[in-house]
């Protein structure tokens, strides 16, 4: 029933959502080719400042195929840019150069071939030294090596949290206990997303459950990035954790209402916000 362009890559999507909500951010990372230029243009049109390091190849394109009748969807990924270890070193210095002017750093997504799996770790350590709060949202082989650097906030899904903990998390209670256990490793805030069961979040203010809202889902791609955007938006404005989780839930849910990945309408967020519940566990 038609197609819609959207943003891909956790960091870029989060910046794009923040831009749509009127919150300034700087998006940086590796970019390449015509797709990279389109990505930068979409971000800049939303008010995002971009500072990409341009490399060889082509920024990857993902095709999310969604079936409206039952909500089923899949993703096709076309191979991406070509990075070298030297590109990784240059990018690390570029990101570090922004730390003096920011309060929050989101390290999001997979890393291209040519960069080590723990590429985020020294950047996380450097940000911690400079008093910048780090949110790590990475998966697969990029999660555990960078969690070891103790980012302030992590947002694994249930499968990823099970790998970190080395055990299954079959229930909401088990996921909450897992989040508390991960906090004991020196991570201040652990949010475990549970799909149709919402999210559990262990913080220094307590452990919370954010149940999902009943809506008609159009496309789930980008909802996790919406959660990140709402969280960062609220915390940057001084919100406590329950208030921040309410906004995170509202922004994440708003993403589900649009066909484009990460497309977000402020009026949807405003309408959903009063409906989001945050339950103390």
Features of the shown structure:
alpha/beta; 10 helices
Provide the fold topology:
Blueprint: H1 10-20, E1 26-27, E2 30-31, H2 33-45, E3 49-50, E4 53-54, E5 61-66, E6 73-78, H3 85-96, E7 104-108, H4 120-129, E8 133-137, H5 144-147, E9 153-154, H6 158-165, H7 172-183, E10 189-193, E11 199-203, E12 206-210, H8 223-236, H9 241-256, H10 266-272, E13 279-280
Parallel strand pairs: 1-3, 2-4, 7-8, 8-9, 9-10
Antiparallel strand pairs: 5-6, 10-11, 11-12, 12-13
Helix pairs in contact: 1-8, 6-7, 8-9, 9-10
Report on the structure:
With 281 residues, this protein is an alpha/beta fold. It contains ten helices and 13 strands. It has helices at 10-20, 33-45, 85-96, 120-129, 144-147, 158-165, 172-183, 223-236, 241-256, 266-272, and strands at 26-27, 30-31, 49-50, 53-54, 61-66, 73-78, 104-108, 133-137, 153-154, 189-193, 199-203, 206-210, 279-280. A seven-stranded mixed beta sheet has the order 7-8-9-10-11-12-13, with helices on both faces. α4 links the parallel β7 (104-108) and β8 (133-137). α1 crosses α8, α8 runs antiparallel to α9 and α9 (241-256) packs across α10 (266-272). The mean pLDDT is 89.
């Amino acid at each position: 029933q038609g197609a819609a362009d959207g943003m891909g890559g956790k960091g870029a999507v989060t910046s794009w959502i923040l831009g749509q909500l009127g919150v300034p951010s700087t998006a940086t990372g590796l970019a390449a080719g015509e797709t990279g230029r389109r990505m930068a243009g979409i971000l800049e049109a939303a008010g995002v400042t971009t500072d990409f390091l341009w490399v060889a190849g082509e920024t990857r394109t993902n095709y999310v195929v969604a079936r409206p009748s039952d909500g089923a969807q899949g993703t096709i990924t076309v191979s991406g840019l070509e990075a070298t270890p030297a590109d990784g070193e240059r990018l690390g210095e570029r990101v570090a150069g922004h730390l003096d002017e920011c309060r929050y750093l989101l390290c999001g997504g997979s890393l291209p071939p040519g960069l080590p799996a723990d590429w985020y770790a020294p950047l996380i350590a450097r940000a911690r030294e400079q008093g910048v709060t780090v949110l790590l949202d990475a998966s697969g082989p990029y999660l555990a090596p960078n969690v070891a650097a103790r980012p302030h906030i992590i947002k694994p899904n249930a499968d990823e949290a099970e790998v970190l903990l080395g055990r299954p998390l079959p229930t909401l209670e088990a996921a909450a206990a897992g989040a508390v256990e991960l906090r004991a490793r020196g991570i201040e805030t652990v949010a475990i997303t549970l799909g149709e069961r919402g999210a559990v979040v262990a913080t220094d203010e307590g452990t919370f459950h954010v149940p999902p809202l009943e809506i008609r889902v159009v496309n789930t791609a980008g909802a996790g990035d919406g959660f990140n955007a709402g969280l960062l938006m609220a915390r940057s404005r001084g919100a406590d954790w329950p208030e921040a989780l309410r906004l995170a839930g509202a922004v994440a849910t708003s993403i589900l209402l649009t066909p484009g990945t990460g497309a977000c309408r402020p009026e949807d967020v405003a309408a959903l916000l009063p409906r989001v519940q945050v339950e103390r566990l």
